[in-house]
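2 proteins. here.
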Amino acid sequence: MNEMIIKRNELLAQKVIKGLESRNMSGYYAASKEEALKIALELIPEGSSVTMGGAMSVHEIGLSDALKNGNYNFIDRDAYEDKRAAMLLAYDADVFLSSVNSMTEDGVLINIDGNSNRVSAIAQGPKKVVFVVGMNKVCNDVDAAMKRARNVAAPTNAQRFGLDTPCAKTGSCMNCKSPDTICCQFLITRFSRHKDRIHVILVNDNLGF
């Protein structure tokens, strides 16, 4: 990565972390995927019950593999025939892992969901939520973050899942009501009532969508 981009990300991350702290959330900056993995494992005590939404960023830093192979009760919903049962286990988990579709420079988190298991677990239930976020997802403000979520993250995920939505065909949001839409619930997290519940690891890399 270009040295100037690295420097820019370091400076921007410090601004984001201050914004998170003002919202009763904790922020961390990782210079690499390896450092992000180290920080994440420090936030997850051994023996914890851990589950996650469909976060590519968690896989990309090697966190899901580390949990599967470590001393953790990792609830892998892909291993469950009954997906609903696996999703419901998230609400009583010690740790829920996710990324964001986008976030703002002052620490507001934006997430869009289809089944809504991810946004509901972010909002309430698990004792701790750990986000892994590439610096490519940081936007100027809520308006820009919402546009990124709808016009970058949603179409890419619709294509990834092979869904029959207008955005999968055009590459941008058509504000559809398609039966396949994954834009059913919009969650804007602007403050955490419970201190030490939400942790955001900012990674100096392009992660996820």
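next one coming up
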Amino acid sequence: MKRPGRRLTEEEKAVWAQVARTVKPLVAPRKRVEPEAPAMPVPIAPPLPVKKVKGRIPPPLPPKVAAPKPRVEVPVNLDGSWEKRISKGTLLPDFSLDLHGSNLDQAYMRLMHGLVQAKAMGARVVLIVTGKARPVDAADRGSARGAIRAKIADWLAASDHASDIVAIRGAHRRHGGQGAIYVVLKKRR
């Protein structure tokens, strides 16, 4: 774009050149950096031959990664006779475990040891008395009541015994009602 105006006269050009020689720049001028040439030329590999394939080309296979360990889910279904026996209160536990009066650490250890004993005895139904559930903070470490009941399902699902558990059900009133659960174990062969 051209600016409107006049051109400098020879006298004005001389004065401007004299002024320009006396001025010091605020920032040092940048040095122009020349790109360095590589010392040795890098050989370029010839392209790999490509096979012509008719039809659709499948996408590349994903890299092999170790599969995560499957989470053991506790099945929730029992046949009708089990459910009927639980609801009527005619189901008799083969082994009982009372966790009353324990803090969370003690209760966990007693639960794991008790399940080992029950499996060694060939028990099929384990009655675990936990106490009634009460609202409890997940970070509570045993100071509030009902903490054992709040944690027991997680303990069972994450334990080594999870693969041996067929079902977990609330106990009948005669065996503790809301303060107890039945753990049904797999039949031993």
